[in-house]
Amino acid sequence: MILGLKIFNEKGNCASCHQLTNAKSEGNIGPSLDDLKPTQAQVKQAVINGIGIMPAFGNDKILTPQEIDAVSFYVEKATK
Ligand code: HEC
Q: Quick one: CA dihedral 7, 22, 28, 43, positive or negative?
């Protein structure tokens, strides 16, 4: 969880585009993850391949597979 939060706020920069109360982020370019409550698999899919203007963190090797697992796990748990 701690690693996932760190990636969310720092390396992945997810916080700049997404609202997520657990991470105290208020980005409003992408959908609110608080409302969406995505599953770990759904987050992983979006983060690896990108969607719309969201970067493809996996395909572009911005995040490692381990980092993607950590951030996906974190987002699912943080929105339960
Ligand atoms: C540049 C802004 C931006 C960044 C950075 C960003 N996203 Fe997104 N994200 C978006 C937008 C915009 C959408 C909606 C795309 C669409 O539906 O066309 C989205 C969609 C999503 C979805 C929903 C996918 C679905 O199945 O509908 C998830 C989950 C998600 N983002 C998680 C993340 C995570 C985790 C990170 C960090 C690793 C991240 N995003 C970084 C802009 C961003």
A: positive
For a mutational test of ligand 1's pocket, the pick from 51, 60, 74, 77, i.e. the residue with the most ligand atoms closer than 8 A to its C-beta, is 51
Among 20, 44, 54, the mutation site with the greatest number of ligand 1 atoms within 8 A of its Cβ is: 54
Specify the pTM: 0.97
Task: List the chain pLDDT tens, one digit each, 80 residues.
Answer: 999 999 999 999 999 999 999 999 999 999 999 999 999 999 999 999 999 999 999 999 999 999 999 999 999 999 99
Q: 71 - beta bridge partners?
A: none
- Which domains, and CATH codes, for the chain? 2-78 (1.10.760.10)
